[in-house]
């Protein structure tokens, strides 16, 4: 059950994922939706996983949580929660530590709450069933949680059904459900994408506050670099199922070393600076059944060289805590101004 | 790319908006049912039928088996509101007592397949794998036979009368419930709230009973309404063939069948239980249709 990595140490990391690979069946063929992803999270830390749709970021989260869809299975890799290995992938065994330590916040709160059960009952369920509180104590606990996540008038909201709440309240209710099992890590799958900007800011503030007050670790999957910049310490950028760049948020976002990260940065709308209009990334995400040879980003990359297509490009540490999967990451090592120069056609020289 | 997608349909209230929280009181289930025309009409029809049938000893005036060979085949009169049959039995009384038998048998015969089928269907949809394979193949085998052929064969085999009917329906009718709830469960299982419930550390048994079943059962309930009609029709058909409720116990099927010989001269003998059958069927169908609207979470 031990991972293939040499870097296996009795770690203090709360959540450690190494070399996670998820195979997804499509028809008679299979592809790797997640390909050798590793990351770790210390208690109270927060990690943002960013990437386009189909980059495997949500699949990574679901594999860690043990909630992979039926067509998918974790074919390699280990997930350790507080040093204890748990089977990655689908269903959990009865003694699974994930139950107590990890909880998940979903993108669409309406879909993630049982439509025919009151919100209060859903929050009270884990305390009642998993922690074995009495009905009265579980109710008190649920009310406390609803209050904690900022639901106004929790006593009355307790008996509401999910569809009777507003979008923001629903998201809060779902966070309350996630907190009800008293987890140490919250896995958030685009928790604010379906919300409008003001509610989004409130939910982010809430998560940040929970992190500070309860030492909750956060893994935050999103396609929104701005969100990651706001609440994460570390970032992992995913492309075509692989981590292409990782490191501290400020370092990675200020001076990206992988062309894809740079392109993501350039495609972001930045209201603070008077930078020119956001640039889209040419081309589309590759079909996972027909990945290009070598670096998967190479056909869309403005910095691509012939050797990029030669073979797999491993993720390599370029500075303490910073890793990049790019043969020519030096091309981006210069001052940020070079970023705005290369157009999609002309490769910059190194 | 980093611009937050704005969904104007969601989230108008946030922190500190306690005052403006909409104070919509959810109308109760009964209130919503009463406002749904199909549901209300169906419930009213069934209510009347059930009330009449329950009051049979009070308003029946005669025993359903009491023969009076002095007054056979009479038309409606003050003494016999709906006339008499060939043995001089009061048609009105037989209609009420017959309805009693048929409704009771219809309801009970649906109860077992409803329970067993819904549970099996939810199990199959949730767990998949070999359970699903075995149960669904058995279901295919049952479905391969025409319904009536199977029912008649089974009733013939286990013996006619009510217990034969119960067994025959328990063995065949669960298939429809199993298939209905299975597909509803398959849809539900792919949704995040099932994942969320599992992730919350609940046992799979609890997820199944407390989360999945309440969400999928409404379709089965709706179908059960029409199914009672189907069962009553089958009981009536079996009665007509002599395999159903055994004489002298009154039932609508036997009444229709007995009246057949006199259809040209005394048509009401068959027509009246036929109308009762239609009214009951209509009521149950409307009720089922209305319930589908009321049970669907808006």
What overall geometry of chain B do the principal axes of the alpha carbons give? elongated
Q: Which architecture of the largest domain in chain A would the CATH scheme give at its second level?
A: 3-Layer(aba) Sandwich
User: What is the element string of chain A, with H for helices and E for strands?
Assistant: EEEHEEHEHHHHHEHEHEEHHEE
Written as H for each helix and E for each strand, in order along the chain, the element string of chain B is HHHHHHHHHHHH
Q: What is the CATH first-level class name of chain B? A: Mainly Alpha
As residue ranges, the low-confidence spans of chain A are 1-11, 336-350
CATH class of the largest domain in chain A: Alpha Beta
Overall CATH architecture of chain B: Orthogonal Bundle
Percent of sequence in beta strands of chain B: under 5%
Biggest contact: A-B, 68 and 44 residues
What name does CATH use for the topology of chain B? MetI-like fold
Helix percent band of chain A: 25-40%
Q: Number of domains in the coordinates of chain A?
A: 2
In whole angstroms, how far apart are the ends of chain B?
A: 33 Å
Blueprint (SSEs and pairs):
The complex is a heterodimer of chains A (350) and B (298).
Chain A: E1 15-26, E2 29-41, E3 46-50, H1 57-65, E4 72-81, E5 84-86, H2 98-101, E6 102-105, H3 109-112, H4 119-129, H5 135-148, H6 154-157, H7 167-180, E7 185-189, H8 197-214, E8 217-222, H9 225-231, E9 234-239, E10 242-248, H10 249-254, H11 259-267, E11 316-319, E12 322-324
Parallel strand pairs in A: 3-8, 3-9, 6-7, 7-8
Antiparallel strand pairs in A: 1-2, 1-4, 4-5, 9-10, 10-12, 11-12
Chain B: H1 29-35, H2 37-54, H3 56-59, H4 91-127, H5 129-144, H6 147-158, H7 162-172, H8 174-189, H9 192-199, H10 204-241, H11 252-259, H12 268-295
Helix pairs in contact in B: 2-4, 2-12, 4-5, 4-7, 4-8, 4-10, 5-8, 6-7, 8-10, 10-11, 10-12, 11-12
């Amino acid at each position: 059950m031990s991972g293939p990595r040499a870097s296996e140490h009795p770690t203090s990391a709360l959540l450690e994922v190494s070399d996670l690979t998820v195979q997804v069946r499509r028809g008679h063929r299979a592809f790797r939706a997640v390909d050798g992803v590793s990351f770790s999270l210390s208690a109270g830390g927060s990690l943002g996983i960013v990437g386009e749709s189909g980059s495997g970021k949500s699949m990574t989260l679901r594999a860690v949580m043990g909630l992979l869809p039926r067509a998918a299975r974790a074919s390699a890799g280990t997930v350790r929660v507080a040093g204890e290995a748990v089977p990655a992938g689908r269903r959990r065994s009865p003694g699974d530590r994930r139950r107590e330590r990890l909880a998940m916040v979903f993108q669409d709160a309406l879909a993630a709450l049982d439509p025919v059960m009151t919100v209060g009952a859903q929050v009270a369920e884990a305390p009642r069933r998993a922690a074995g509180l009495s009905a009265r104590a579980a109710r008190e606990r649920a009310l406390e949680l609803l209050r904690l996540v900022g639901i106004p008038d929790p006593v009355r909201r307790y008996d509401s059904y999910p569809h009777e709440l507003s979008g923001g309240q629903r998201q809060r209710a779902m966070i309350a459900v996630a907190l009800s099992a008293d987890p140490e890590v919250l896995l958030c799958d685009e928790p604010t994408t379906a919300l409008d900007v003001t509610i989004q800011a409130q939910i982010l503030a809430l998560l940040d506050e929970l992190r500070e007050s309860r030492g909750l670790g956060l893994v935050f999957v999103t396609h929104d670099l701005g969100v990651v910049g706001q609440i994460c310490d570390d970032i992992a950028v995913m492309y075509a199922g692989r981590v292409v760049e990782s490191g501290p948020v400020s370092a990675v976002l200020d001076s990206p070393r992988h062309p894809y990260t740079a392109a993501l940065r350039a495609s972001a709308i930045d209201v603070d600076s008077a930078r020119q209009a956001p640039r889209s990334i040419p081309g589309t995400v590759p079909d996972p059944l027909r990945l290009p040879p070598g670096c998967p980003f190479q056909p869309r990359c403005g910095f691509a060289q012939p050797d990029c297509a030669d073979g797999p490009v491993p993720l390599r540490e370029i500075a303490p805590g910073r890793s990049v999967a790019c043969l020519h990451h030096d091309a981006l090592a210069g001052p940020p101004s070079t970023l705005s120069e290369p157009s999609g056609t002309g490769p910059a020289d190194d | 790319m980093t611009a937050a997608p704005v969904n104007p349909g969601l989230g108008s209230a946030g922190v500190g908006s306690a005052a403006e929280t909409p104070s919509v009181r959810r109308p109760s289930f009964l209130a919503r049912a009463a406002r749904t025309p199909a549901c209300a009409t169906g419930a009213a029809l069934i209510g009347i039928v059930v009330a009449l049938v329950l009051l049979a000893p009070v308003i029946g005036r005669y025993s359903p088996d009491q023969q009076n060979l002095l007054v056979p085949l009479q038309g409606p009169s003050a003494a016999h509101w709906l006339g008499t049959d060939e043995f001089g039995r009061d048609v009105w009384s037989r209609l009420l007592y017959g309805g009693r038998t048929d409704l009771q048998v219809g309801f009970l015969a649906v109860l077992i397949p409803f329970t067993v089928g819904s549970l099996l269907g939810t199990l199959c949809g949730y767990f998949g794998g070999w359970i699903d394979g075995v149960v669904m193949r058995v279901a295919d085998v049952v479905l391969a036979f025409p319904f009536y052929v199977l029912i008649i064969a089974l009733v013939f085999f286990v013996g006619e009368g009510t217990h034969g009917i119960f067994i025959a329906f328990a063995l065949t009718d669960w298939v429809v419930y199993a298939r209905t709830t299975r597909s509803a469960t398959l849809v539900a299982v792919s949704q995040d709230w099932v994942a969320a419930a599992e992730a919350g550390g609940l046992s799979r048994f609890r997820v199944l009973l407390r989360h999945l079943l309440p969400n999928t059962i409404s379709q089965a309930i709706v179908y059960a309404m029409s199914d009672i009609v189907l069962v009553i029709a089958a009981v009536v058909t079996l009665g007509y063939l002599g395999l159903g409720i055994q004489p002298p116990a009154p039932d609508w099927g036997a009444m229709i069948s007995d009246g057949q010989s006199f259809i040209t001269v005394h048509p009401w003998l068959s027509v009246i239980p036929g109308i009762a059958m239609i009214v009951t069927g209509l009521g149950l169908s409307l009720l089922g249709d209305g319930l589908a609207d009321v049970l669907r979470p808006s």
